[in-house]
Structures are given as structure tokens and as C-alpha cells.
């Protein structure tokens, strides 16, 4: 080959396009690194993710199933385990340790004016029927109010009256006494004590609103509001 031919061949080699390495699929890392990558995705995801969703984020050629199997084996018996929900995978608290995540919450609700008034009427007039409660209050007694007081454990059903229709009566319970710090219903403050403590005005009350007096025994003396209910 002449020098001219050699020069031509050299130019031909130099003019060939270089391969585009950027378009070549990345080489899959070793299985340990694949496991780390899958673990990171599981940890970061709030919702379970599928094997297909994991695969599209990994380098080409990764074995998602093998990585998941290794993670499952490594977490077995630990506080966090690999769980499956349908087609998705997630890292979750071990089922037998779920009780540690539970927290008992006491929800505090405030009794309505009608409820505290009804409770006071029952406390001072027990045993008392619903009709008698309505007569004292001057308005109808809501069934929901009575049910709420029963659910709280502060009142219960008493004996039925021997009058026509044999209406049921309502009485207070030991839980009621315990909540208000009373040894017995005989320790309920009288109207004189209520007036002396400033909870009642000294002037006589209209009979139609006599319930205002008895309900004052259960109002917070600082705020004048009903007590909190802690079921």
C-alpha cells in the first residue's frame, strides 16, 4: 500500500462517527446495590408500590423480584417488615407490634344547657318521669338528651310508676356521685347554700323556671358554664 493509500485509509477511519454511549442502557449494579435502591423507594413511598413501578426507576437489567426477596428475608422478624397489599409492596410495622402505635384519646365534649338542666332536675327530684321533667322545665324533654345522660352513665332507669301508663322514672347513678364528688344525693347543695355561694340570686325564682336553681348546682362556679363531659 502506497503512502497515499495509507493516508486515505487513516482519513476514512478518523471520519467514522463515534458510537453514542449516552443511548446505551446503563449496566445493572450488583444485587446488593439493587436491594438498597429498592429499599430506598419502599421507605420513601407512603403508599404501596408495585414491582412494575419499581422496575421503571431502576437501571436496565435489575432483578426487582430478587431484590424484594432479599429485603423480605432481611426484615423478617424485625420491627418493620415487607408487606404486600394487592400488587403493591410496602415497609410497615410488624403486625404483632401494632399495639405500640395505638393511643387512647379522651374526647372532651361540653354538655348542652338542656342536658345539665335535665340532669339537675333528675338529681333533685328523683325518681322522676319524663313528663315531670318537662313540667319543671316548661319545655319538652328531648329523648336525645336523656339518652346522652344514660350513655354517660350519670342516670339510669328507675322503677315504673303505678300510675296509668306506668311511666318509667329516671334516677342518678353512682358514677354521677363520683364525678361530682358527692358521697350521696343527700349531699347535693340546697337552694340556701346555692344562694350563699353566689350561684343563685337571693330573690325568689318564678316557679316556671325553678329548674334554673337546681341546675346551678352543676355549673362551674368560676365560669358559670356546664362541666365538661369525659365519656
Automatic annotation (TrEMBL):
Keywords: Cell cycle, Cell division, Chromosome partition, Cytoplasm. Pfam families: SMC_ScpB. Signal peptide: none annotated. One of its GO terms (biological process) is cell division. SUPFAM superfamilies: Winged helix' DNA-binding domain. InterPro entries: ScpB_csome_segregation, WH-like_DNA-bd_sf, WH_DNA-bd_sf. The keyword rRNA-binding does not apply. Residues 1-27, 202-231 are annotated as: Disordered. The keyword RNA-binding does not apply. PANTHER family: SEGREGATION AND CONDENSATION PROTEIN B. This is Condensin subunit ScpB. It comes from Profundibacterium mesophilum KAUST100406-0324.
Amino acid at each position: 500500500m502506497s503512502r497515499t493509500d495509507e493516508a486515505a485509509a487513516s482519513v476514512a477511519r478518523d471520519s467514522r462517527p463515534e458510537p453514542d454511549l449516552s443511548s446505551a442502557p446503563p449496566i445493572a449494579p450488583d444485587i446488593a446495590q439493587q436491594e438498597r435502591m429498592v429499599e430506598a423507594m419502599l421507605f420513601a413511598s407512603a403508599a404501596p408500590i408495585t414491582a412494575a413501578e419499581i422496575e421503571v426507576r431502576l437501571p436496565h437489567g435489575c432483578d426487582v423480584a430478587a431484590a424484594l426477596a432479599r429485603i423480605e428475608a432481611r426484615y423478617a422478624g424485625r420491627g418493620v417488615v415487607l408487606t404486600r397489599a394487592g400488587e403493591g409492596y410496602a415497609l410497615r410495622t410488624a403486625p404483632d407490634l401494632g399495639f405500640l402505635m395505638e393511643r387512647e384519646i379522651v374526647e372532651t365534649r361540653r354538655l348542652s344547657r338542656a342536658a345539665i338542666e335535665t340532669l339537675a332536675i333528675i338529681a333533685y327530684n328523683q325518681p322522676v318521669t319524663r313528663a315531670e321533667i318537662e313540667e319543671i322545665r316548661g319545655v319538652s324533654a328531648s329523648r336525645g338528651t336523656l339518652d346522652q345522660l344514660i350513655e354517660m352513665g350519670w342516670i339510669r332507669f328507675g322503677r315504673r310508676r303505678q300510675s296509668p301508663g306506668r311511666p318509667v322514672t329516671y334516677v342518678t347513678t353512682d358514677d354521677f356521685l363520683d364525678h361530682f364528688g358527692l358521697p350521696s344525693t343527700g349531699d347535693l347543695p340546697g337552694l340556701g347554700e346555692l344562694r350563699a355561694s353566689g350561684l343563685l340570686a337571693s330573690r325568689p325564682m318564678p316557679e316556671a323556671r325553678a329548674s334554673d336553681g337546681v341546675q346551678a348546682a352543676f355549673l362551674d362556679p368560676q365560669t358559670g358554664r356546664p362541666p365538661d363531659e369525659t365519656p
